[in-house]
């Protein structure tokens, strides 16, 4: 019934449709029509209601659609298989299961909402419905386990390039190792989880969360001072589908470059987009606190920090 | 019923017990007695049957007992919690589940038999009932992911020391990275599976399979030329319980040394017990085949191979 109402409106863009017209179309009472309109509003559709003129459809919800995403996607392997869910606990958990069952490299798990999204170090990740990109990508990189720090940085570069491409007005930069910041506030999180046999990586799940269209009120109090969204930063709505597509394309290009030429080009790209190099840094490590100035990323993906006494310490992203 | 038969025999060591005695004891027919004896034989008990004298119990199966293992175990954390199963698909799979559920470091999964035991590189591991040690140990090492090659070598050293301690007559040595060989044939396999978030290891499952009391006939044809057992190598039965205990104690000592002093003492111990150093080696790697002479293990746990042209290549155990 509601599909028929939507189709009727879509055939009459910008026109007012009266309650009477709808009740004749659907062969139901005016009250029933009103109830359907209310239900559509709850699903995210916006109607203007003008007395004596009727209803006008002025906004459709931003819903992801796997078929539409795929149709416009120009990649070889990334996102060629898309599993889209309305609400899940965590896209990471689902991607792990798919990987265990043999899912191909590039399989993408997307959700409109995560009820228990995971961040780094066991933290929660706030993933409200329809407002962000909450996704997990299955990777099967042909690299030994000790190269995973490089992959973490690679994902950050791909995401930073994506935001810069779609919003050149947004001053985004990478904070070591892989947070994207806009004016000091976080707009995204990256979490790599891997499964290995000896030093052979069986698979890596790259989790990416981007706060796209969240507004200030969408954040719980404790996050408001540290988190922002692309919408808040730019003052406009962003297309989540376009962001997903662009990320997959940027990521695939970098990932192929990495397999062909190694970490060096990724390292240069990371260093060009970060705000962490040349800055003072303080970090807690298993062997005590480290303070100093971040100088560069080494060939393994570790951050080289020069301490006040001149000695260089290597930091890995887990620390 | 069978417990009562066993208790009766155990009170009369080396005595013959007639079928008539047993049928009176159990208040059942001679046929029923015979059926119980047959069933006990299937469970691994050995009876001598002499006409007109009766049965004599001459062999009890070597069964593992978690309480007995624990009572004699002198470790702080390794094996302090033991999950013993009769038959499982793979102790690795069970240990993964326990680790995901938060099992403490040192939790040990043991099985009398594995129906789908896993070896390295996705191979099968032959794990017949009651003849070997098939175990998986949950570890939560405080090391970054790129140090896992070191752990692989550490487990091999612990197992090699165990065999040398219990059987100084058995000429066991480590073949790179972590196989134990006796006279060129394999007696054990080690498989480390790890789960990480970025570079932080969440947990590692150390799988250890030791062919203890297998006889030639216990091996399928295709394994007979490459595999052997401690029993075949030494000509005597080994206590599996003693082997498990000794391994846990040796492993714990090395693991604590590793956390306190790093990889250097482990590397020396590995090099002292290997047959691989100084020998020609050929290996297949993602970047092509490597041929040369193995020179040493580097500080990360990689094998340094000098190629005919003098160049040094690093090999990781997965290759």
UniProtKB/TrEMBL annotation, chains A, B:
Swiss-Prot/TrEMBL GO biological process terms: protein lipoylation; regulation of DNA-templated transcription
Any one Gene Ontology cellular component term annotated for this protein: cytoplasm
Coiled-coil annotated residue ranges, if any: none
DNA-binding region: 19-38
Binding site for biotin: 114, 118-120, 186
PROSITE patterns: BPL_LPL_CATALYTIC (PS51733)
EC number: 6.3.4.15
Pfam name, any one: BPL_LplA_LipB
InterPro entries registered for this protein in UniProt: aa-tRNA-synth_II/BPL/LPL, Bifunct_BirA, Biotin_CoA_COase_ligase, BPL_C, BPL_LPL_catalytic, HTH_11, Transcriptional_repressor_C, WH-like_DNA-bd_sf
Molecular functions per Gene Ontology: ATP binding; biotin--[biotin carboxyl-carrier protein] ligase activity; DNA binding; transferase activity
Record keywords, A-Z: ATP-binding, Biotin, DNA-binding, Ligase, Nucleotide-binding, Repressor, Transcription, Transcription regulation
UniProt cross-references to SUPFAM superfamilies, sorted A to Z: C-terminal domain of transcriptional repressors, Class II aaRS and biotin synthetases, Winged helix' DNA-binding domain
UniProt entry tagged with the keyword DNA-binding: yes
Every BPL/LPL catalytic domain range: 67-259
Reaction(s) the record says it catalyses: biotin + L-lysyl-[protein] + ATP = N(6)-biotinyl-L-lysyl-[protein] + AMP + diphosphate + H(+)
Functional description taken from the UniProt entry: Acts both as a biotin--[acetyl-CoA-carboxylase] ligase and a repressor.
The name this protein goes by in its record: Bifunctional ligase/repressor BirA
Highest classification ranks of the organism: Bacteria, Bacillati, Bacillota, Bacilli, Bacillales
